[in-house]
Amino acid sequence: MAVKTLQDLFIHALSDVASAEKQITKGLPKMARAATDPKLVEAFKAHLEETRGQIERIDAVVESIGLRLKRIKCAAMEGLIEEASEEIEEIEKGPVLDAALIGAAQKVEHYEIASYGTLIALAKQLGFTEAADLLQATLDEEKATDSKLTVLALQEENAKAAAV
C-alpha cells in the first residue's frame, strides 16, 4: 500500500513501531542474559514486561480507530538489535559490556521516543484523541526507561567500566 494520505502515514508509522516493539521482546532477554550487574538485569526484565504492555496498547490503538496494521519489519530496530548482538559477541562479559548494553538500550529508547512522538502528533492531527492518549502513555514509559538507564550509567556502570 502506497502512503498517500496522513492516515496512511499514521498506519505505516504505527505498523513500524509495532514491529519494533515485537523485535524488542526478542532482544531484551538476550541483553538481560548478557548483563552482569543485577540492577541492569532487572531493568531489562522490567522493560520486557513493560514492552509487552506497550504492544497491548498498540492493539488498543488499532481497535479504537478500527484500522489494520501493515505487515512490515522495522529495519531501524533490526539494526539496533543487531548492533547490541555484535557487542554481546565482541565484548567480554563484565562492566564494559554492561556499559555498552546501556548505550544500546538507550539507542532503542531514543528511536522509540521519536517514533511515539511522531505518532502522537499524527494522531492529534487526524482527530484520534483516544489513540493519542494511549500513545502518550507509552511515550511517557519510554522516556522514564531512558532516564533510569541514564542514572544507572552515570551512577554505577560507567565508573565500573572505567576501572577495568
TrEMBL record:
CDD domains: YciF. Gene3D superfamilies: 1.20.1260.10. This is Ferritin-like domain-containing protein.
